[in-house]
Amino acid sequence: MVYNESQTLKDSWFVPVFFGIQLLATAVALVYGVVDVEGFTSTGLLGLVLFISFLIGWLMVSMKLQIRLNATGLSYKSPPFINSWRKHKWEEVKHIQQIKRRSILSGGGLGIRYDLKGEWKYLFSTCHVVRVSLKDSSFVWSTRNPKKILEAWEEWGSER
């Protein structure tokens, strides 16, 4: 059994809400005008805000998490920040557990996070959360099918 999963941030509720707020703010700015700020005209300031919003939106749309589990171990990548596969052999994995809470509540929001415990969190959906504990660190993935990940751990990882 080989398990592959791909999650994108654009499939979540967050991206349409972001673009909706951006569209609403742009419409309000165009209808009511924007206050001139030290040499910027209102259209120049609006253009700058729209450009920055476009860059943030492009970043959100291009973010994804790819998970792969096979007989040799587990690997993941999260472009555009982690473009090569990060691989861990099953011997390096101490434990994989499903966290009962939803990713939005337990992880502090969607996207890639680094918390104060020194743990990376890759949260791209609001369905389920799985913590992978390695010998020297741990990280958290969001997943749509935690049973498959736990089955792969039972099949390949726990016997080593």
Automatic annotation (TrEMBL):
Keywords: Membrane, Transmembrane, Transmembrane helix. The chain crosses the membrane at residues 12-34, 40-61. It comes from the Bacteria. This is Bacterial Pleckstrin homology domain-containing protein.
